[in-house]
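STRUCTURE:
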């Protein structure tokens, strides 16, 4: 009873904040939770006439088809490989950028760097893909530059050995500034006295960065890392869909693009739903396991 009365008291006391949170709650309810009712399609032999709930049950038929599909192991491998590369190379870049940006002492120059680095985030992947194609095309600036040295033009986006590095590089360029916002906010909350004391003790900029700034934002890093690991099965559909082609399916075809083709191009709705459900369950498992490991190691940034 005491906990219920405390909850009621908090609801009344912070009612204005809860009202402000209602739109976000409504968005999540309508676009994230209500559509989950469609998961039942993975267990049904869906047809448009009978609808989702009127279609006959198929049990685990489509999950079996998924496991037996000859192309499925390659798609899973590509998804994990690209996602892990993004964790290794893309995830640390906003942290490094925030640390370096914090060391810029000229405030106006720091603001310029921040603004310029944020801008690519607001470009859709359709626009970015157009820029990349123009840059790396047969008659693009890169091939024109290499042609001046006698190198034949290379269609980079059709070469498997170049495609994944292009994904990593474009993702870093697009999101490094936006991803650094959280870390810059965490750095802004560090007490200035810590830096002053370290400077009096003779610590240089790099030492202050390594022994004060980085440890102070470690809990934020851990939380964002856990959230990123929970998305390990999401290798970036928008990016890959707008950049890839049939020539690079061997390295660029991931689960999300596979679901797109199965569901919207081949009209295998139940099969696509089964694949999507399996992918999300694996992602949830990774999130729980990573959180458990961090707790066992004594991390303070658990979810």
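SEQUENCE:
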């Amino acid at each position: 009873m005491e906990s219920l009365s405390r909850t009621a008291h908090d609801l009344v006391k912070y009612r204005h904040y809860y009202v402000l949170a209602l739109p976000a709650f409504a968005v999540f309810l309508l676009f994230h939770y209500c559509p989950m009712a469609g998961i039942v399609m993975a267990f049904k032999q869906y047809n448009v006439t009978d609808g989702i709930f009127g279609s006959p049950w198929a049990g685990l038929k489509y999950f079996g088809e998924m496991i037996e599909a000859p192309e499925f192991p390659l798609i899973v491998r590509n998804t994990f490989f690209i996602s892990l590369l993004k964790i290794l190379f893309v995830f640390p870049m906003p942290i490094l950028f925030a640390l370096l940006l914090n060391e810029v002492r000229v405030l106006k120059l720091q603001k310029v760097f921040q603004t310029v680095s944020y801008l690519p985030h607001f470009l859709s992947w359709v626009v970015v893909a157009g820029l990349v194609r123009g840059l790396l095309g047969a008659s693009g600036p890169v091939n024109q530059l290499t042609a001046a040295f006698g190198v034949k033009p290379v269609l980079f986006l059709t070469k498997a050995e170049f495609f994944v590095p292009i994904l990593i590089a474009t993702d870093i360029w697009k999101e490094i500034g936006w991803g650094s916002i959280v870390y810059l906010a965490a750095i802004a909350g560090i007490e200035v006295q810590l830096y002053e004391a370290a400077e009096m003790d003779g610590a240089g900029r790099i030492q202050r960065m390594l022994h004060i700034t980085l440890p102070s934002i470690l809990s934020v890093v851990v939380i964002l890392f856990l959230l990123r690991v929970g998305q390990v099965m999401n290798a970036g559909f928008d990016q890959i869909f707008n950049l890839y082609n049939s020539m690079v399916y061997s390295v660029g075809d991931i689960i999300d693009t596979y679901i797109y083709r199965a569901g919207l191009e081949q009209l295998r709705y139940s099969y696509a739903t089964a694949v999507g459900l399996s992918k999300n369950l694996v992602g949830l498992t990774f999130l729980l396991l990573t959180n458990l490991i961090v707790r066992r190691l004594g991390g303070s940034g658990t979810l």
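REMARK: The two ends are 27 Å apart (CA to CA).
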